């Protein structure tokens, strides 16, 4: 990687960092810091949801599977499209109607504080491993592209991410997410045609690909796995506390529906575009082994991108993948501040609560860095992500979400389901191989992890309905929601205007940077220049629209 690419990375890093820090004064209270005022535009929230979820493993996890198994990686991600559509229709509007600042607040209102406290401890424990698994791919990308040691990359990037998340809150997360979406979409639309040209076109790619490379499934990722993983995605995207924040931060149930539908629509078209580069690299270089295939995406980019564009692509990948880290850090800090600290200090004012939230972000960020450093010792990122999904996905996120729709579930029932499922999944993952000489394959592990909580919750539902159990907890919850609707305050639209303006400026400056880089490109100059001009015009249009709203 040359001096120009490194310079571009530094410029883009500075741009993202400044955009995030520009919201340092927006965290005037808990609602603005952890929910962006509660009236976030649906398209911003939807793009942020997409970036927060997609960036967790697209480049490294799914890129690794695309390199080794081909079209299977696209099939896996299609399950996310289906999940997004279903969430938009049925689940996202239900979350918005709870009027809760966090999922933990909903659990307190619906299932009781003692239930919420146990869930909070479990969520925080699991989220540390989750964010560590998200931070590792960022550092892997840097290592592959620059040669910097992965441990150094983890520490430096972790500190950078936690600083702007601690300072700017959810607005910092949202704005940087949208900016990264535009940058990465522009960059990958340059990478794909250049990659195909590198191997002589689509015909050569298809003819030289390994046998069965375009099969929808394979022996490891079977149709059974796809169904189970689809259920996991439904539970995870709909019930993960960090993603619930995207549904509760918009103004209306209709907007929450659009958030889910936008997510699903993007996952209908994006997997093919995103997965082509590592698939093409398999034809170009079929000899990657071990954990080296985790870097296939970046290695393809290094082959074809003109000078400077690799740096921009890398910068976009770094901060897109880090989106999953800052999203989880923000909501985890919100839970600690709003749902734990506030309970013990009910008279704490907003300034104190926001300060606690920022301190919690820093503490959780440090733990995230430590876990990320340990990922290589846990079997690599694919193993960590898939195991976390199978063990915790259904157990943690389905039971509280079920309570959104059921009058009969109680704090006791959902806790029993969660703890029993976690215990059973952990036993078969960690103890059964040595004690019973038995272990699940990937599909069985995922199916078992998703199936147990469904069966247990359904059994309790049938039992409670048959016995006509009283629904006192649900009736009290309905009264609390009614009170929240009466007390809801109108938030100023200034945050939305500023957010849109900052996004526009960031996009326009990125477009200008791409145009400048096209002047240095030895190959693909017209393609790069045209894309840069489009991004520049898009940013200018966003700035114009935001200024119209302000003057209006």
From TrEMBL:
Q: Which InterPro entries match?
A: Na/Glc_symporter_sf (IPR038377), Na/solute_symporter (IPR001734), Na/solute_symporter_CS (IPR018212), Sodium:Solute_Symporter_SSF (IPR051163)
Question: Any idea where this protein resides?
Answer: Cell membrane
Q: Where are the transmembrane segments?
A: 6-23, 43-65, 71-92, 118-138, 150-171, 178-196, 221-238, 259-276, 359-378, 384-405, 414-434, 446-464, 502-520, 526-544
* Reactions catalysed, as given in the entry: iodide(out) + 2 Na(+)(out) = iodide(in) + 2 Na(+)(in)
Main localisation, per the record?
A: membrane
- Record membrane topology: Multi-pass membrane protein
Give a Pfam family name.
SSF
What top-level branch of life does the organism fall under?
Answer: Bacteria
Keyword vocabulary terms for this entry: Cell membrane, Glycoprotein, Ion transport, Membrane, Sodium, Sodium transport, Transmembrane, Transmembrane helix, Transport
Q: Which family does it belong to?
A: Belongs to the sodium:solute symporter (SSF) (TC 2.A.21) family.
Protein name per the record? Transporter, SSS family
Source organism: Zobellia uliginosa
**Organism lineage string:** Bacteria, Pseudomonadati, Bacteroidota, Flavobacteriia, Flavobacteriales
